[in-house]
Amino acid sequence: MQDRAMSAQYVLTLSCPDQIGIVSRISQFLAQRLCNITESAQFEDPISAQFFMRTTFESTITEPLATLETAFAEVAAPLNMQWRLADRHAKMRTLIMVSRLGHCLNDLLFRHSIGALPIGVCAIVSNHDEFAGVARQHGIPFHLLPVTSTTKEAQEATLEELIQAHRVELVVLARYMQILSDAFCARHPGKIINIHHSLLPSFKGAKPYHRAHERGVKLIGATAHYVTSDLDEGPIIEQGARRARHNHSPEQLVKIGRDVEAAVLSSAVLWHAERRVLLNGVRTVVFE
Q1: How far is CA 138 from CA 93, 100, 150, 159, 176, in A?
Q2: 152-176 burial by CB neighbour count: b if 16+ within 10 A, else e?
Q3: Which of 207, 143, 145, 129 is CA-nearest to residue 180?
Q4: Of 116-125, 171-180, 190-199, 263-272, which range is least confident?
Q5: Which residues contact 207 (CB under 8 A, 6 or more apart)?
Q6: Rg (Cα) of the chain, in Å, rounded?
Q7: I need a labelling partner for 86 at 20 to 30 A (CA). Which of 20, 94, 119, 249 fits?
Q8: How many CB atoms lie within 10 A of CB 61?
Q9: Which domains does the chain show, CATH number per domain?
Q10: Active-site residues: which are they?
Q11: Could you give the percent of the chain with pLDDT greater than 90?
Q12: pTM (2 decimals)?
């Protein structure tokens, strides 16, 4: 076997109607092209009757990704398959959006700086200027895009230009406190990740943790999900929670909430960037 460090490594993700012979056809395709499977996971959903699979493999011959894609398309077509083939080590081109709360942004940038997230942060976008210095410290372009009800359409048009110019594959809303338009969300299905406190919908609006304290909430949580036109109701990627005690002050609940939010968002970004998350209607399949 060729030295693994020198071999090309890929990740294949797919979904299709569940049927006999899917795994066999994929295995035969890879074997015929002298590819060695290094990791594989699959799931057959009895509710949607869909089959989901994530497979990583290494190629022992020099073969461009485009050539592999062309060849695999012939396997995928008869199975009515939705699929994606990617370089396993390519960093996902990511744009981060933030408003005035920086805990999620700083956590993502730290993990990115130590190589814990396989992403390349192309730009940071904000409707406020608080984090321009943070972006500069990390050597990341910062774009101030203020937004009001009258400028929202123009602001999103500029945002779209940035996404296209940087060839962005993932947009992360790291506590970006603006609602994206339905049209914008529709252009990027399964490519925008948001984080919010799991106290929704009970405590919407300002100071949710203070209102939770007033009601004696026992769990502080957060949810990372894909953004859709249904506000805060997109397919869930990850959730987390921590106990809230009777002697916790509202300020302590805020601190707990921020820790949970940062951890949950980073996990969601990691799994998405490693192509471990597949959409299953309004749900997700996550191959951790």
Answers
A1: 16, 18, 33, 21, 19
A2: eeebbeebeebbeebebbbbbbbbb
A3: 145
A4: 190-199
A5: 250
A6: 21
A7: 20
A8: 10
A9: 4-87 (3.30.70.260), 92-286 (3.40.50.170)
A10: 232
A11: 84
A12: 0.93
Residue 5 pLDDT greater than 90, yes or no: no
Ordered DSSP codes for the chain? ---GGGSEEEEEEEEEE--TTHHHHHHHHHHHTTEEEEEEEEEEETTTTEEEEEEEEEESS---HHHHHHHHHHHHGGGT-EEEEEETTPPEEEEEEE-S--HHHHHHHHHHHTT-S-EEEEEEEESSSTTHHHHHHTT--EEE----TTTHHHHHHHHHHHHHHTT-SEEEESS--SPPPHHHHHHSTT-EEEEEETTTTTT-SS-HHHHHHHHT-SEEEEEEEE--SSTT-SPEEEEEEEE--TT--HHHHHHHHHHHHHHHHHHHHHHHHTT-EEEETTEEEE--
The per-residue pLDDT for 1 is: 44
User: Are residues 36 and 3 in contact, defined by beta-carbon separation less than 8 angstroms?
Assistant: no
Residue carrying the six token digits 């996550």? 286
Cis peptide bond prior to 201, omega within 30° of 0: yes
Count other C-beta atoms under 10 Å from residue 88's C-beta.
Answer: 17
**Residue owning tokens 């999900």:** 225
